[in-house]
Amino acid sequence: MNILLSIHHELDGSTGAPGVTVKLAEALAQRGHRVTTVSFDNIGWARGKLRAILFPWFLFGHVLAHPEYDVLDLSSGDGWVVNLARRLTGWRRHQLTLTRSHGLEHMGHDLFVESCKDGHTAMSWKYPIYGGGYRLWECRRSFKLADVSLVLNEAEREYAETRFGVDAAHIEKIGNGIDECFARVARHLIAGTSATAGPVNVAFAGRAVFWKGFTYLTEAMTNVLTRYPHVNLGLFGTGSTEAEVLAAFPEAVRARITVVPRYDNKELPALLGGYQVFAFPSLTEGFGMAPLEAMACGLVPVISDIPGPREYMRDGVNGIVVPPRDANALEMAIAGVIDDRERWLALRRGALATAVNYSWTDLAARFELLYCQRRQRRMPVRA
Q: Which residues cross the membrane (predicted)?
């Protein structure tokens, strides 16, 4: 098949939605498909919000110039112009169009508004114009008009059906995957001997921001580090300098905290090599790649009970699930596995068994099957 993928970011294989796009494109190409990716890099002459506003129109022009595509797999908000044209004119019936969620923006918006009301963050005067206005309209229209609405979790499925009015028959759910470097580590650890004894160290991967639960992480880990003098904390991909991150912790524990502001995703297995527990108190995730990558590296995840990670997490089987925004629950869960090594070992085995099933190679086969099945149905363009 000839497949077009779009993403409303600059391409970067080590970050979030752009990384998912890069890895899916590579995995599909390895299966023999011709894959083209269109991103903000293709309109580098535009900047900021102008680039974001123009991108759906640029993408429409690209699709007009390339009738050879069989599948248009377009990131949320990108494809509304393409699909509106199809609805109005009936053209390109042979092309299957999908709108892909990388974390449903409307759900993030609802959480943001709630957090503003609670005083945890503030809304700028600009936000309702684009981010909380026009952008949400674009995303809703993209999901409403595509042949297939592709979501990451059950909460997104319900939202698309009940809030967007998308027919359930047009919704598909497929999660994300892990790089082959992580899958190799997981297979090696499964085939090897049991984990060696040693101190239990805690890691976190994500930006040091409120939305990743960093406020709750600092409170919980300050107490853990104070209670257990042998425990260390690693903070990876914080996006902030070491000094800025360490300032959130008491001076007495800072010497046992390692901060890595940025890393290439392929470096993460080595960075996590000395850690056994992965704390992830995020408030919102479409899928949540970081816990799954940590699980592949032999870490036991302690995560917030939010959509996304719930797709692969089973409390007490392959990790521990705690209520969101609850620093005390996070602290108690981490302390529990530090104090009970046998429990940690059992959860570790469950985590490895889960992670090894999420390689991009396997997921590319699922997407290939989805594309083929949906094209064969020759579904009409929706109004």
A: none
